[in-house]
Design goal:
About 15% of the residues lie in helices and about 30% in strands. By secondary structure, it is of the alpha+beta class. Strands 1-3-4-2 form a 4-stranded mixed beta sheet, with no helix packed on it.
């Protein structure tokens, strides 16, 4: 029996960012991919996404106090 953690209420929504969105993100914050925190490609939260090393993952977290917060991570090797 395996547990699908992506449906758990405490796991925020993870989605792959398109190449166009990636370029907008870099321009908006004046950064490169090296400046982003990393997420390991084997992370269970992105297991169902079709990602490769170097892709950007957007994580949306809902909070009662802060509302919607977005975080970005670059997919990295182990």
């Amino acid at each position: 029996m395996t547990l699908d953690i992506t449906n758990h209420s405490l796991v925020p929504k993870h989605m792959r960012v398109s190449d166009a969105e990636k370029e907008k993100l870099y321009a908006l914050y004046n950064i490169t991919s090296k400046k982003l925190p990393k997420i390991i490609i084997t992370d269970p939260a992105i297991a169902k996404l079709t990602v490769k090393v170097g892709d950007i993952i957007k994580i949306e977290h809902h909070s009662k106090t802060a509302g919607l917060s977005s975080y970005y991570r670059e997919v990295a090797d182990e």
